[in-house]
Amino acid sequence: MKIHIIGGPGSGKSTLAEVLSQRYGIPHYDLDELQWDAAAESYGKKREAAERDDLLHQILKQDDWIMEGVYYVWCAQCFADADAIFLLKVPRAVYRRRITRRFIRRKLGMEKGKKETLKDLRALLRWADKYQKENMIEIRNMLAPYADKLVERNGFSAVGKKDLSKGEFK
To answer: Which fold has domain 2-90+135-163?
Structure first.
């Protein structure tokens, strides 16, 4: 089974990916790990596109995978290969609260952290607003050919058991 989960920051992508990964025993991949250089000294350094694309293609070769992230431009093959695509969207107040809570939890060492600063948090909140207003239009257009395997939901909590059943993806 191959599942792609896309949505803006704070939409519940990681939570849904973890639940599906545990339920079906399928490896879960966070596309941020492919996009960003975790070994960099500072927050926000991207990997080289060739390195990112090579990592992506290694995952796509596997029989089963769950990928989640905000990315879509360089993920066209993921959408084509997926058996199911979840598109998550939540209200502005919800994603902004989740993003802020995650930032605080990382700063307190309660969650795996990145090297974000308060300035980075403000920039991410602005970017998340833009993503919801502009990028979601592009994403829906890009996913139009995959309507038969697209499941749109208002966040993880709106995904029901019927959506998660294996038979739903075949």
So the answer is: Rossmann fold (3.40.50)
